[in-house]
């Protein structure tokens, strides 16, 4: 096996690095030995190969989740919570190795990868507790001899499909509430980043999650549609929870219609980041750097359109560009690196196309604008000024380290521009005018609004979007509702007198 890790490996690294799928409590290869390579985007080296499973294996995984469901569902919520708590503890204990794996397969700097692993563990910890608080209701009766009771039940087998940009936390955000609610899960991770998913399964097994309760089916880009079709059409799968692009979300939604499955969709975004004249400028610059360049700009909640009001536009552009020029680009295992490689060549191509399109329509390049000497998948952090709504960056997620600055004059104008998109995931604005804070927060058509704050995600708050950014919420007590069916019991014929 060729290994792509250059940083010293902790002792548990090899135990967590798996090259098999995890189905029905067993580590399995493809029956014909079909597999695909997992590549380190920083240097193009093969980390390992994993099975390229297809429809048959997805079917087997579902069948195992169906078999495991009654036992897992009947377990006391407290006991499921204890197992999840052990899973959390193991993830935290192995955070360094999990982060190294994540950084190696995905590219993000080690410190960021460690942050993701721990935030993913926080979801497991949070739902380990929340699973014990799935309360029902009694409703005042409409008949003297009857009682109206509402109970809550797990939806059943859940299919989860996750993206490459957060290979660890996107999994635990779905799997933890599903398991806490008493559901069983079949997970298909992204082709680019299956290793974090398999490492989580190693620890789930060690934590005592029974066979069949959590399954991981790895598949290549070419096999994803076949696996996805089984996951979205199998009658025993009762819910599909997907994080990824809006385009693929629509396909899965259409496929799920055939059996009317419950759906949670965490889809694409096109976040506006608005800085009003009244903002604390230093704080806004800092926030914009964090929001735009985290994960090399490859997050669904990344600032994609930075709107700056007239009065501070030039000063903001100067301070922001200075900070961007100072960002350190390099492989995730190098000390002090802030911006890693992009995931693949199409990602680089898209970034370049967005820059060329903007410049052709009059945008000014303040810094960056080309590939980086660190390697073929690295890109210079870039700032463009004088952006307009006609440019592609206005309409599409760039998903790369490119910040476009738009000038605006007044509040009404910027709200109109910010809402002029099919997406509605994250939005941000910076203002110290209290009236403006509430006016703008209420006017933005988004599932989440960061006000003087760029980092929104936390286990205890509802993460999700409106419009074409999706359906449902992850995190918080709202996040567990997505894995629960409500059942209404009407108990009649009760004698009113003894
Ligand atoms: P993607 O292409 O939609 O892929 C997401 C997942 O779907 C991957 O596992 C992919 O497998 C799989 N997939 C693709 N086609 C499929 C099909 N026909 N049937 C079943 N599965 C299929 O998205 P991505 O490029 O990995 O991720 C980036 C996108 O995710 C961005 O749009 C980003 O905004 C969004 N995102 C949203 C959130 C949120 O919380 N709203 C969070 C993170 C990311 P392969 O990898 O094998 O293609």
Question: What would you note in describing this structure?
Answer:
- Helix content is 39%, strand content 20%.
- It has 498 residues and is an alpha/beta fold.
- It has a 7-stranded mixed β-sheet with strand order 14-15-16-13-12-17-18, with helices on both faces. A 6-stranded mixed β-sheet has the order 9-8-7-10-11-19, with helices on both faces.
- Strand 1 and strand 2 form a beta hairpin.
- Helix 4 (95-106) packs antiparallel against helix 7.
- It is globular, with a radius of gyration of 24 Å.
- The N and C termini lie far apart (77 Å).
- Mean pLDDT is 97; it is low at 1-5.
- Bound molecules: NADP nicotinamide-adenine-dinucleotide phosphate.
Quick overview of this protein structure:
This protein is an alpha/beta fold and 498 residues long. Helices cover 39% and strands 20% of the residues.
